[in-house]
Amino acid sequence: MSEPVRAASPARFGLTEPRSEEMLHATGWWADRRPADGSEHLLAALSRSPDPDLALRGIDRLREAVGDAWPELSAALHEDVVLRGRLLAVLGSSTALSDFLVKNNDHWRELTASFDFGSLGSGDLRTAYRAQLCLIAAQDLAHIVEPDLPFVAYDDVAAQLSDLAVAALRAALSTAEQRIGEKAAECRLAIIAMGKCGARELNYVSDVDVVFVGEGDLGVATRLASSVMQIAGQACFEVDAALRPEGKAGALVRTLDGHASYYKKWARTWEFQALLKARPVAGDGKLGQAYIDVVRPMVWQAAERENFVPDVQAMRRRVEDHVPSGLAERELKLGKGGLRDVEFAVQLLQLVHGRGDESLRFQATTAALTALGRGGYVGRTDAADFGRSYRFLRTLEHRLQLQRLLRTHLFPADDDVSALRWLARATGLAAEGRRSEGQVLLAEFRRHANQVRRLHEKLFYRPLLQSVAGVPTEALRLTTAEAVARLAALGYTSPDGALRHIQALTQGVSRRARIQMALLPVLLDLFAVTPDPDGGLLSYRKVSEALAETPWYLRLLRDEGSLVERLATLLGTSKLVPDLLVRAPEVLRLLADPDALAGRDPLAVGNPLRSAVSRYADLERAASAARSLRRHELLRVASADLLGLMPVETVCASLSEVWAAVLQAALDAAVRSSGPPLATIAVIGMGRLGGREQGYGSDADVMFVCSPLEGVSDSDAVRYASPIVENIRRVLGSPSQDPPLQVDADLRPEGRQGPLVRTLESYRAYYRQWGEIWERQALLRARPIAGDAALGERFVELIDPLRYPADGLDAASVREIRRIKARVDAERLPRGADPSTHTKLGRGGLADVEWTVQLLQLQHAGAVPELRTPSTMAGMDAAVSAGLLSADDALALLSAWTLATRARNAVMLVRGKSSDQLPTSGRELLAVASAMGHPIERDPGEFLDEYRRTARRARAVVERVFYGEE
Q1: Using CA atoms, how far apart are residues 92 and 913, in angstroms rounded to an integer?
Q2: Among 341, 349, 346, 365, which residue's Cα sits nearest to residue 449?
Q3: What is the pTM of this model?
Q4: What are residue 708's DSSP bridge partners?
Q5: 843-856: burial string, b at 16+ Cβ within 10 Å, e else
Q6: Nearest to 356 by CA among 522, 170, 547, 588
Q7: What sections of 697-843 are H helices per DSSP?
Q8: Over the stretch 29-51, which tens digit does the pLDDT of each residue have?
Q9: Could you give the domains of the chain?
């Protein structure tokens, strides 16, 4: 028995019109309430059309129009997948092209033909143009209806539309010449395509922007040009010549010399931006090429114009401002996240970087964007994302214009369900899960628009663009001799050496070399205004070579202009920073964000280090991890310090807390690897570490105290703790490329001859019987910094009566302190050192100020609790509040101490190694003065004079307050 006939509904194929079944019957594709035999695949194709109802109405109209030829057309649709895909796609996408096919009912046969733009020169131009336009659309859309047909990329469609427009211009020019007759030979006329036609990225419906160049009888040339505009305008598209010199107020046709003169004298920035897409397309080929030869060099020099980058950016903002506020979110072309965002960004990047890199000189947006990505001027991912979003938005624009062949750039409203559904299907989007086609389209549109806006703001307002634009074009391409001369003029003392660095960085054709070629002209200028341009460039080369395989390094420099400026300052000033940077490159990212670089709480900087190292049981691995994290913090602080983003108090406190965290991490790891614990251990910070006044090159002055656990003897506790402490010192002090991690315990009882670790009771007994006045003075800066907190507090309770004596100091003790200080001044100042510029032991230096404050503390802290602080600055403030030091004297001491601390740190940053002696001449003095905030254009000797004056004022206070001299 045969299968029973099952009733079906046209709705199964997406048809909703009441007349659907009637129209299907008329076509012969429907019979007995179901698809006619052999028609299932036709109806399936119809259902995939962007609008099945619209496509079916078009088929029904075409059936009536072709009359007796309908069986032939219907059979062809059954058999020919290409015709089926193309015809149903066009009919379901465009009412205007449906009307054309119905009116010209034999043109359906041409939908499977090849393009023949030459046919526009004969017969009816309007019909021939529309026929070729219909063929382009059919080929563009066919894969939607028949998925096995080839997908045609946006770039190819735009190029075909542009080539069709060029053919139409040539046909219009030929017709115009025929109308004018013999007089047309009295002139030469070249038609220059501009805008999208010039770039071969035309829309389905668009004005065609042109410029006319003429020679000979300009009156005849103008008649020709006007006729071309009229003929093409009536038949195909509006021809817009408003981009010509002086716009609509200017002559329609100018000579080559007239164009050249205008662009040299009067043209504005936007006109050179427009000329980027100029292309001769019709008329006299030699004249057209001569025009390009004249204007193209001007295009690639435009970026040198004053305020070029701000002008282009301001123009984009003006375009945005003219978009009606109610339509801004739906405006595909001019709104935020629209096509102009991509085009302006790409053109600006081309004009700035294309001066020195001819590989960027493309007219089409997508081709130029690909070249920018390939050359490294835009990140690969950014270029790919930008390109995808641009193509998506242009495809939406194409589909919207095809519908009625009207100029439109307006995305449907959110609540226009039918329009959204049609556009989604015309774009090839399908429903996903519970989301309809329209909802999928809305999500995709918003995603791409947001992505375009994000990348536009990232690239179009990139600070580096202004810097690159400021470099003269001739500086981008120099012969060896010219390059050496320019480097010498910029202040490089070894231009030949600098040139070798440049060549090493830019050799080859790699993407990395291209990015370097874009960066170096700017960097050379930036290094030129640092204390050491040659050193800065050398450091940059070393850093670049060390980070050559770090994928984000050059991308970060390219994308963050402010980061490049800061990096140049650091490398041209400091030897410490580049040494650290090659081993802690992650800090480079922070240079783009001053808050992240300098905004961390100084008392919390050690927390990440403690946390990260806590998982290591092995001391060697823990020390290595701690060293790495310390390197990161050291570089962060040094960078913020050199850039003037961090006050000296924060610098010193941060460095002190990093040291404390390193000691805590090392102690924890050493204890974990030492078997069952027999004692608790505490680390007591001394000196600058105890006072949170550590410098970049300071050792860690410490003492170690232990306390036996219950049932353990003091001697066993010491035997347990001593190797732990020895291991900590050994491992931390092992050779390293980083600034040293020397743990100095010389301030312990009996100095280097005494045991490294003592119990609390041992310390008590020693200080009771043998403690000297200098040891009590040293204890003023003692502070528990690591280890067992309770033990540290018990140690503080032990030493407080010693360092803060209730009855102050007797005269003999005061004399002894003064005697020791005088001996230090006489014996410890290095031979040949200049006492006026030695930051530690010189007159008015750190030792002078610190000993003065400490004497006041020993004398009065027993009665004045506010003086009980390990901090020099806090001690000074307390002395002023207690009336022990005048405000003027405290200001003199504080100024000298702060200046000496900063100068000592600056020397370490500049030289890469610690020194207490200020340089007194040369680039090192210039660098130290610059690191201290002294303007680089001023004589660095002024900084030395300021230092000496400040130190002299402090020394006068020291002699009066510390030595008791009037």
Answers
A1: 77
A2: 341
A3: 0.73
A4: 679
A5: bbbbbbbbbbbbbb
A6: 522
A7: 714-732, 760-769, 773-778, 789-803, 811-827
A8: 998 888 998 899 999 999 999 99
A9: 10-150 (no CATH), 153-299 (3.30.460.10), 573-803 (3.30.460.10), 811-961 (1.20.120.330)
